[in-house]
Every structure is written in C-alpha cells, then in structure tokens.
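Worked example 2:
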Amino acid sequence: MVFSNNDEGLINKKLPKELLLRIFSFLDIVTLCRCAQISKAWNILALDGSNWQRIDLFNFQTDVEGRVVENISKRCGGFLRKLSLRGCIGVGDSSLKTFAQNCRNIEHLNLNGCTKITDSTCYSLSRFCSKLKHIQNYCHELVSLNLQSCSRVTDDGVVQLCRGCPRLQALCLSGCGSLTDASLTALALNCPRLQILEAARCSHLTDAGFTLLARNCHDLEKMDLEECILITDRTLTQLSIHCPKLQALSLSHCELITDDGILHLSNSPCGHERLRVLELDNCLLITDVALEHLEHCRGLERLELYDCQQVTRAGIKRMRAQLPHVRVHAYFAPVTPPTAAGGGGPRLCRCCVIL
C-alpha cells in the first residue's frame, strides 16, 4: 500500500477537495479505479463524473458487456463527452439506449465493430443525444460517424440518421452489407456537406445511388468503394463531372470498371488537380491504356494495381516516365519457376513494389 491511513488523511487535510479533483482529472480510468479503493473520500472524488469525460474501452473490449456501459453512463451522466466502444462486441441496443438516456451531452461516439447494434441504437441516439458531433433525428451538430462492421444496421437507420444530420461530413459504413441505394439517396438529399464516405463491402450499392450522391455532394474528397461490385464506369463519369475535390478513391474489386471510366476520371478537374490516391486492385478489365490516361493526373502520389492482370511492367514504366514521383504497387506472377534452394542467381520477387 503506497499510503497509510494517516498519510491519506493528511493529504485530505492539506489539499482542498477541488485540487484533489483536479489532480484526479489527469488520471486514466485504470488509475482512477485504483484510487477509488483507497478510502471512502477518494472513492467519491475518483468516481466523480467530471473525471470521466473521455473514455476509451478498446483495451478492455473482450471484457466489456452491456452492463458495464450502463454503469458508466449512470456514473458519468452529463459529464461524458467522448466514448469509444471500438471492438466491444458484447454491447447491444438495450445498453446503448440506457447510455443515450443518461449521457445526453455525448459529442464523440465510436461504435466500430459493435456487431450487435441495430437501427434501434440509431433511434436511441438520435432521440436523446442532440449534441452528438463525431447520430440521427435531432443530432444537428453531427459531423462524423463510424459504423464500420455494424452489419445489422439497415437502410432505415441510415435514412433516419441522414434526415437529422445536415452537417454530416464523414461517414463510415464499411461492412454494413445490407445497405442499398436507399442509403445513398438519403445521404444525397440530406447531407450536402459530405466529404468522406467509406462504403467498402456494401455490395448492393449501384450506379444509380452513386449518381444521385455525386450530383448533390460536391465536396466529396475521399471515397472507399472497395467491393462495391455492381458499380461501373457510370459512377466514375458522375464523380468526374460533379466532384472536383476528390483526392482519394478506392475501387478495388470493382471488376466492372474499365479503361473508359479511368479516362473520364483522369480528364476531370479532380483528376488534373486533386487526385492523390487511386486503388484499382483486382480491377480485371483495366489495361495499360488506363495508365496512359492517368498520366494527366499530375498530382497522383499512389496507385494500387495488385492483380490487374492486363497491366504490364512496360505500361507502368511508361507512366512513371511521365509521373516519376508516383508510387505504384503491383503484382506480377513469376515468369519462370523459383530458383532451387542454393541457386546462385538472383531470385524473382513475386510482389513488385515500384518506389
């Protein structure tokens, strides 16, 4: 024991409660819990809601169950501003409803990987947490939301979210596999300030949804559309016309994308001036012609071409002659079988990384 009862009593006499409370405010949650076990006086101070304004439970994710979140919400109440439940798969709708009712001043909430939550959580947060910035009807200040891998969230939840969040700027829906164009329509009609959309593995989204999104959200800067397998060059055409600020675009595993789509992208204002990152892994219809088009993208910094089987080394070299600063990551199968063990010649690298 660090302090005896006399030591602890002396500290309490020498230091005013306000100063002790201020000291406790700098401690992490583990240390606060330890301090709470020292004495009754310290228990009251350590567990004071003002010390629990920012909580990250990621390191305890396997142990966090719904009742933990409920207890935290009752302890912190209106003091809590930021909570990360990233990876807390044991937390569900019921607990988050209690949380929403108790912590109405929450501003930042991370639910990444909370696979048990459904649209019900979106409803609870929208109803009770009007100051949320970084989830749904009446959350007018919300600017950022991460729902990655919340696979039970459906279009209904996203639609309600969008209707009440006109200032939304960043939304991650990656892994929400049941979403359809109805979600994109809601974003397009309600969230014109949207800058970042991550929708990887949302395989039901189509050109129609992205067309409406592009025509209404002109501030888009970053889009992750990996494994949006239904989109075609039409989506790229619309992004090229309506989204001049686009800087990063992932189209990996979008196997219907062709050289024509890249032509539209590279000849657009965003292609000429803004585009920095383009990911085309497993876009099987892309050829060296697309690389010729990308020579117009003078600001391009990184290009991903893994398993683009119609792209050649020669095509990459020609492009890099025009864009020497660009980093190209590509994969080429060995031309000859690997050299036997102990061979004196150089071995062929299976993964070609061109710096």
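The radius of gyration is 26 Å. Residues 1-51 form a domain with the Monooxygenase fold (CATH 1.20.1280).
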